[in-house]
Amino acid sequence: MGTTASDAGATTTSGATAGAAAGVRPGTDVRPGGEGGGSATAVDRPGGVDLADPAFWGLPAPARAAAFAELRRLPAPARFGAGQGRGRGRGRGGRGQGFHALVRHADVVEASRTPDVFLSGPGVTTPEPARWVRLLFGDSMVNLDDPRHAQLRRIVSRAFTPRLLSRVEEDIRRVATELVDRVEHERPRDFVNAVAAELPFRVICDMMGIPAEIRRAILDQVNHASEHTGVARPLRERLRTPGRGLRALARMQGMVAALGRERRRRPADDLISALVTADVDGRRLTGRELGAFFSLLLVAGVETTRNALAHGLHLLTVHPGQRALLLGDLDRHLGGAVDEIVRHSTPIIQFRRTLAVDHRLGGPDGPLLRAGEKVVLYYGSANHDETVFADPEAFDITRTPNPHLGFGGGGPHYCLGAHLARQEMKVLYRELFTRLPEARSVGEPELAPSSFDHRVRALRFTF
């Protein structure tokens, strides 16, 4: 359900403003042609919409939703960014290059499930991680293609034994109970810090075998490394923050690498031991690979689940009919509620891919995308595609089917932690609403203006 802190970066910028996105003007320029037919190869963006401009991500949610709805109606993916996506830029990693926005459900699924055409290796975040950063910190699985990706995924999958998974489920129930105990007795005001962030962090630390005495230090480093992901900032802060974030990432990965060395000598019953001692095709995780995987777990597993839990409490507050339906029969509706929360809020907004070859999107008559061009997969837009979801802006916990892409669009990069995230959300909500059925948000969530994740900084709540 996410990416690593080392992969994360601010969105690419352009000089255009997104201030007119609330009233999107059609005005598109369809360009026909390409080999073998008269299909549209690309279209210019509607007037007033610029997904590459950080200002767009600070617009009110209804304005952004209207912009994406307009983009989904175009005959081909619109271009954004420098050069409007025409340059190839393969030799320089595509830095500063434009991109095509994949905003329809079918297009995001196609890009996700055709990994030999839509590559992750050049980098899935915007901008792509610098080569020296990847050499220093190691490659996250989200930035790998097969065969390296498949090899690492096999090692990780082998480490998730039935014994480990059974213990994790027990840990989730124990931590959820302790957190609701704390809420009941201490009455904290911020749901994010008191509950939503604590649950996934403690569960992952328990699963990995992180000693209690260094957990707070690791959490501090995670917060420093990821606090400005995808957020527009003044130039002085943009120049200063990368160094701070990379130092935090280095400290965190150093702690985990030291634990990995210790567990090779004295294995324990935890995930770190399983990862550094597993022998899959003669391979096990190196210290650097372990650090990169831990970063992935913490940011993908903690940040995204935290945000989904917070969004969920607010959605159930502002939709009292759906809340009453859920609390009236938790056994029947809890699973559907969790999936609808993930669909509606979509914790990860976007990842991107690089075209390995020329490719016609959607079939032989579809728009032509060229080798070396970039595409960005907008999961939130795909999760509100009118051709797939009836009344997509509605929050409906009985929605069925619900083929949302909140955990990715399928294919080899489908989220490894999807089952864990669902379990955490179901257990926490069951514990919370069974014991404190009046728990609800107060006011609007405090959101970070980000093009990468749907981040909730704080959410006041009461019961």
Percentage of residues in DSSP E strands: 5-15%
Helical amount? 40-55%
State Rg.
22 Å
Find the structural class using helix and strand composition: alpha+beta
Structural features, described:
The chain has 463 residues and is of the alpha+beta class. The chain contains 15 helices and 13 strands. The strands form five sheets. It has a five-stranded mixed β-sheet with strand order 3-4-9-6-5. A two-stranded antiparallel sheet has the order 1-2. Strands 7-8 form a two-stranded antiparallel sheet. Helix 5 (162-186) packs parallel to helix 15, helix 8 packs antiparallel against helix 9 (235-265) and helix 9 packs across helix 10. The protein is globular and about 55 Å long. It starts with 29 loop residues before the first strand and ends with a strand.
Q: What layout of secondary structure does this protein have?
A:
Elements: E1 30-32, E2 40-43, H1 61-72, E3 79-80, E4 99-102, H2 105-113, E5 118-119, H3 131-137, H4 148-159, H5 162-186, H6 191-196, H7 198-208, H8 212-226, H9 235-265, H10 271-277, H11 287-318, H12 320-328, H13 330-345, E6 350-355, E7 359-360, E8 368-369, E9 374-378, H14 379-382, H15 418-435, E10 440-441, E11 446-447, E12 456-458, E13 461-462
Parallel strand pairs: 4-9
Antiparallel strand pairs: 1-2, 3-4, 5-6, 6-9, 7-8, 10-13, 11-12
Helix pairs in contact: 5-7, 5-15, 7-11, 8-9, 9-10, 9-11, 11-13, 11-15, 12-13, 13-15
